[in-house]
Design brief:
Helix content: 25-40%
Largest sheet: 6 strands, mixed
Number of helices: 9
Strand content: 5-15%
Radius of gyration: 20 Å
Order of helices and strands: HEHHEEHEEEEEEHHHHH
């Protein structure tokens, strides 16, 4: 029997999603940790080929909310379908795909970033977030994290949590925002890892140190090659590394430091790295 609290949550999030979709905003459910739901087994690691308009187009027709932002839809029949019901019952929030809605969000993460925006960018619709503000402009562009301190761009191939309609009139996407992608952020200094490596408590399946080295190198490369959805890529990479090497005691702080440094090079903050690592451990019951 479904718990009444889950029923209320499903109805609340689904009702919000249907209202937004009716207004033309492509939406998807988010988990309680504000991340999209994981792909189903058939779609895991894009073995299905991906969805159309993803970075790697493919024939996927999965009816579940797989592939994060690419699952966003305005179709009420899909949103209300049985395959999506389990996600809505556990959803903590509703998200939308800004690029598909032809808008761009300048995600300002702190008071310094907000002050910079007021001094640099034209006024537009503004939505308060947990730590800062979303400035929303009419027009789509490529997404990118860390375009400057405390500033991310969310538009094409990205998602943003719905936090309300905001205030103010939406302005056209200004050249100053597009120009942020032309500026290469300074390469971050290697991070002193703030979390210990997991203690080994299980049997080690690795036949040689080369297996672990190859896995860490592949994880670094996966993060380095990511062009969009950096937060999601980092989390999923951390999750994969911990799933393969986190219980046998093979991981060292040097290995974790390499992963954190790769993530920071792509614009992730030390706090985001630590949160992603902790969330991955929690997801795996470590």
């Amino acid at each position: 029997m479904t718990h009444p609290a889950l029923i209320r949550r499903e109805h609340s999030t689904l009702a919000t999603a249907l209202t937004l979709a009716a207004g033309g905003l492509p939406v998807l459910p988010l988990r309680a940790d504000k991340r999209p739901f994981s792909n189903c087994p058939d779609c895991r690691d894009n073995r299905c080929g991906g969805r159309p308009n993803m970075k790697t187009p493919g024939p996927c027709t999965c009816p579940r909310p797989c592939h994060a932002w690419a699952a966003a839809t305005t179709n009420p029949n899909v949103l209300s379908s049985r395959p999506w019901a389990a996600a809505w019952a556990r959803a903590g929030a509703v998200a939308y795909h800004p690029g598909a809605a032809r808008v761009t969000i300048v995600d300002l993460d702190d008071t310094d970033a907000i002050a910079w925006a007021h001094a640099t960018l034209p006024a537009t619709r503004t939505v308060a977030t947990t730590r800062g503000e979303h400035w929303i402009y009419q027009g789509a562009m490529r997404s990118a994290n860390g375009v400057r301190a405390g500033v991310d761009i969310k538009s094409s191939m990205s998602y943003a949590r719905w936090l309300g309609p905001g205030t103010g009139t939406m302005a056209a996407l200004p050249p100053a925002v597009r120009a942020l992608l032309d500026k290469t952020p300074a390469r971050p200094q290697p991070l002193t890892v703030p979390v210990p490596a997991p203690a080994g408590s299980g049997h080690c399946p690795h036949r040689s140190p080369a297996y672990l080295e190859r896995g860490i190198a592949m994880a670094e490369q996966r993060i380095t090659d990511a062009d969009t959805a950096i937060h999601t890529t980092v989390y999923r990479t951390f999750l994969a590394v911990l799933s393969a090497h986190g219980r046998c005691g093979c991981l060292t702080e040097a290995h974790i430091g390499r992963l954190f440094t790769a993530a920071q090079t792509k614009g992730e903050s030390p706090r985001h790295c630590t949160d992603a690592w902790t969330n991955a451990q929690t997801a795996l019951g470590m």
